[in-house]
Amino acid sequence: MDDGSTPVQDPFSITKHRQLAELRFQLRHFLQFSEQAARANGLEPQQHQLMLAIKGLPPATPPTVSALANRLCLKHHSTVELINRLVDRGAAVRRPCPQDRRQVLVELTPLGEELLATLSPFHTEELDQLAPALLHALAKVIHNQTEETEGKSENIAKSYEAAQ
Fold this sequence. Notes:
The chain is mostly helical. It has a single domain (14-163), classed as Arc Repressor Mutant, subunit A, CATH 1.10.10.10. The protein is 65% helix and 6% strand. The protein contains 6 helices and 2 strands; from the N terminus they run H-H-H-H-E-E-H-H. It has helices at residues 14-40, 45-56, 65-72, 76-89, 110-142, 151-163; strands at 92-96, 104-108. Helix 5 runs antiparallel to helix 6. The termini are far apart.
């Protein structure tokens, strides 16, 4: 209600709200796992995300501060601070860009590579376990499903399981 007396019309059904809530729950479940795994390995979650962003950039994208900020959805100065902490820890280094000396490239050190190699298999394993529920939740949202038509999302989840 906007003034305490007029009900606000909700364009979404309760089913759609539940679908979005379930999708967010499934995503958050994985993110919480990821945060705990990073901390268990002596990293802050954003440091792990930065290392993954550095290693996982598309092939034609150089690991510049701008590219990493974009991939992490962070502001430039926040990304610089995050890089500083990773460099201080010995997990990353800065190098001048050979094509444009004004730019700085960020690369993982052997320690950074080792940390990432330790964490990535755990994340893949967790995603394998969460995939059916995550795919089911996503399919329900994108296909605008109701309880009567949810067989389609169950088929997507089953197809994923069969492919494994």
